[in-house]
Amino acid sequence: MDDSKPAPEDRAEAGPFDASEVPAMRPYVDLGGIKVAPREGLQLRLEVDERANRVVAVSLDYAESLLQVQAFAAPKSTGLWHGVRADLAQQMASQGASLVEEDGPLGTELVARTPVPADQGGGTRVARFVAVDGPRWMLRGVIMGQAAVDADTRERVIDLFRELVVVRGEQPMPPGELLPLRVPAGVQAQRQTPPAQGGAQQA
Question: Does 103 reside within a domain?
């Protein structure tokens, strides 16, 4: 299994960033393990797993698209995305999705096309999984909506993804464990189990 750290060559300069790489005075919405740079037209909500009573993902509504992100602990010298992508592909295929890997601006993306039942409108639902392995973390995103199928819109959503900041913290954590998220004042928490929640090994 390839355990290299796939990431854009300019990650440290262009993001997604480690908390140590951004100026302390820059304004962010602090969600614990992830910080979000505010921008016009961006709506933010947190997905809460009611069974575990914890925040499991950050959903960003932007440009007629949805970007759902999670950050995971990772080893210092090896990456998670190659292995996670293989697990995701296996899991999505077992649910009837057709899958293809594509080269994108962040590296290899996994594109899943799932048939939509006729009573839900029919057609195909497209989800695009992206990820970057950073220092001791992996940031994973699921792109849905317009940006999943339109390249120009996807460019804007990838730009949003690259503005995110991951706060790994110093505490020891096993690889693949979700970095803790919290609800700040003024942010809506969606109390449901989101479609892409779970550990690094799950969709």
Answer: yes
* pLDDT score at 198: 39
Q: What is the pTM of this model?
A: 0.89
- Where in the sequence is the domain holding 128, given as residue range(s)? 11-184
Residue 196 covered by a domain: no
Q: What is the pLDDT of residues 166-188, one digit of tens each?
A: 999 999 999 999 999 998 866 66
DSSP-derived letter for residue 22 is S
Q: Domains in the chain: how many in total?
A: 1
Measure the CA–CA gap between 82 and 71, rounded to whole angstroms.
Answer: 15
| Mean pLDDT, all residues of the chain | 89
25, part of any domain = yes
CATH of residue 117: 3.40.1000
Residue 198 resides in a domain:
no
Contacts of residue 36, Cβ cutoff 8 Å, sequence gap at least 6: 28, 29, 42, 44, 58, 60, 163, 164, 165
